[in-house]
Amino acid sequence: MKAARSLTKADVTEAPLKHKQSHLSVTSKRKSRPLFITRSLARRVSDAILKVRSYYLRHQHTEGYWWYELESNITITAEYLMLLHFLGLKDDERDRKITRYILRNQRTDGTWPIHWGGKGDLSTTVEAYFALKLAGFPSDDDRMLRARAFILSQGGVEASRVFTKIFLALFGEFSWKAIPAIPVELNLLPPWFPVNIYSMSSWARATFVPLSIIADLKPERHLLGKTGIHELYDNPDTSPPLLQKKHSLLSWQNIFVVLDKLIKILEPLPLRPLRSRALNHTERWILEHQEPTGDWGGIQPAMVNSLLALSARGYDVSQEPVIKGLEALHRFAIESDEELRLQACISPVWDTALTALALTASGIEKSHPSILKSCKWLASKQIFQKGDWSIKRPDVRPGGWAFEFDNSWYPDVDDSSVVLMLLHGFDNTEFITSGNFDRGLEWILGMQGKDGGWGSFDADNNLELLNRLPHGDLEAMIDPSTADITGRVLELLGMSGYKLSDEPVRRALKFIKANQEDDGTWWGRWGVNYIYGTCAVLAGLSSVREDMSETYVRKAVSWLQSNQNTDGGWGECCETYENSSLKCHGASTPSQTAWAILALISSGEAASREVSKGIKYLLGTQREDGTWDEEEFTGTGFPKYFMIRYHNYRNCFPLMALGRFYSHILKEGAV
Predict the structure, then answer these.
(1) Among 176, 200, 175, which Cα is nearest to 186's?
(2) How far apart are CA 569 and CA 610, in angstroms?
(3) Could you give the CA distance from residue 490 to residue 444 in angstroms, rounded to a whole number?
(4) How confident is the model at residue 115 (pLDDT cuts 50, 70, 90)?
(5) CATH number of 9-69+346-668
């Protein structure tokens, strides 16, 4: 992922950081008590900034982008192995590399978690176990025995999540009768119908549409020899129930169970006149949504399920859509001589925009060749074709950005906002015009929800009922407006000249206030968790010139200040999504510390003791090469169920925080 690049002295010393005097009393707009910023501290900050700059300038790809690993749990790689075996593409050397990666991540108790430091997860452990068996591991291997003991202690395979069961059913290791039905005819429902595929989140839609073919045709590749998992069943002689948890008699879950039984009664009967039409329609939808590069939706689940669906429809591995799809998946892989792991997604647009913003915050001018290259590359990735989002916003012109290299059907508001923050001020250059910037901003404004907030990929995608479906056990079937993305958009709008009196801002502020927790925090949808959400909102409020002395703002600021760790940093564990009483509990991390510092600086607290302590934490934990260590997962895919470790977060956000802090010092005349 790294491109070789020689570093000149001018690259590293762009916008040199000078030190003029030994100390100065600096006060914030809120008249916080003065602190002395010593010459020594200022020099340490400037040296730290130069180290990170040097690191990033060395690692920029020649085309202008930055791209770092997006790490998740082992199910993504285990399912890759399952897919290849299902398609008849078993490869012993590849299996060896994958199993080494899986086993390296096994905990001493035999389990696999969904994030670093987390507890063992049943479904993740089942998938790891099954992948190892497919690769030839015997069930009496000690590592397998420990995993098996955990699985059985948690209720066996029967208690695992739906998607795990589907992978097992593909190999005849779980009964299709115990898997919720997905009538393929649902894909024919028009967008105006109360429930249709466009009521789902983009990631659910891109996964469930192909899954409906799989659920209808129920393909199986029965295993030979000793590769089955009969030993993982708590009660192998009884068909498991559709739902493991008990619900009240009139709950939506139980209603869906009754509907599922009716559907399964009808499935084998010749009473489905639309079935053939629906299968053909769904196949065309899948092929239409495949990118020219072979990708689907930019995410592993959509890509794997689309390949499985095409296989079920009779496509073999020699046909172009399958070839291109497999090539696209392989590009998600990180391979060494010893291991192979697959990423759930790739984040070059996100990494590039955040890194370039961090570099400019550190004092590098936007005219610097490295920044110009990144902006030119990002400008080339603007999407001018309508995607699924246009079903609910048909009159909005396209102009956003996606997360990945190629994902024209699914641009997202978060990436588009961050890219436009960087491109702001580049009007009428050789690579972007004011018209291009305006189109991007126009698209974001057009995606504002009726509630005043912004979701990720769609507008008004908030039909909570879908999370009650038997297939919705990840609670991620919808994409409603969230405080963190709304805060990000406000930050962009403020940079673009929008004021508190402008209608989009007024509506957004109403949403923000309505979604604030009693203790002053905001829940974070895409980062862990209340630190992320709260910091995104505070940055946005500051940008649109909200009065940061407002009571609701100070409540959030006080929460951040009072939850600083004794080492000067901030941290929050992934478990807060299950237990909100744990909010802001966790070991300090560079990324979360940086978010808190950025939020406090935005709130007028740059001279506070808390910010000073946070800066010293970052300085004290920086490595000699300019980077930071961070094993914790501070990104969020699906709250509670799928966490992410962005390998760039531990470096780009600290650089941004150090840069903003130093800029404040310069503005106040401290150095």
Answers:
(1) 200
(2) 9
(3) 11
(4) very high
(5) 1.50.10.20
Q: How many CA atoms lie within 13 A of 586 on its CB side?
A: 31
Domain range summary for the chain, segments of one domain joined by +: 9-69+346-668, 73-236+244-342
Which phi-psi region, left, alpha or beta, contains residue 284 (left: φ > 0; alpha: ψ -120 to 50)?
alpha
Contact 35, 320 (CB under 8 A): no
CA distance 413 to 549: 29
Instruction: Kindly tell me the sign of the dihedral angle through the C-alpha atoms of 113, 306, 95, 405.
Output: negative
DSSP 3-state of 596: helix
What is the per-residue pLDDT for 235? 81
DSSP state string for 297-309: TTSHHHHHHHHHH
Per residue in 215-231, pLDDT tens? 999 999 988 766 789 99
Cβ 574 vs Cβ 532: under 8 Å: no
Write out the DSSP string of 398-455: P--B-SSSS-TT--BHHHHHHHHHHHTT-TTSSS--HHHHHHHHHHHHHT--TTS-B-
Identify the three-state secondary structure at position 584: coil
107 CB burial (10 A radius; 0-12, 13-18, 19+): middle
**Beta bridge partners of residue 340, listed in sequence order:** 335
Burial state string for 447-469 with b = 16 or more CB within 10 A and e = fewer than 16: bbbebbbbbbbbbbbbbeebbbb
- The reply to whether 9-69+346-668 and 73-236+244-342 are identical in fold is yes
**Burial readout 76-97 (b: 16 or more C-beta within 10 A, e: otherwise):** bbbbbbbbbbbbeeeeeebbeb
Cβ contact 604:28 at 8 Å: yes
By DSSP bridging, strand 642-646 and strand 635-638 are antiparallel
Confidence of residue 144 (pLDDT cuts 50, 70, 90): very high
* In the predicted structure, residue 15 carries a pLDDT above the cut 80: no
Task: Please confirm, yes or no, whether 121 is among the known catalytic residues.
Answer: no
Nearest-5° angle of CA 533, CA 536, CA 541?
A: 120
Cα–Cα distance, 538 to 598 (Å, whole number)? 9
pTM metric for this prediction: 0.91
Residue 256: its pLDDT value, please? Answer: 62
Residues facing residue 296 across a β-bridge: 290
Which one is catalytic: 121, 414, 415, 473?
414
Q: What is the pLDDT of residue 6?
A: 32
Closest listed residue to residue 413, CA positions, set 544, 548, 504, 291:
504
Which overall architecture, per CATH, does domain 73-236+244-342 show?
Answer: Alpha/alpha barrel (1.50)
CA-to-CA distance for 459 and 451, rounded, in angstroms?
A: 10
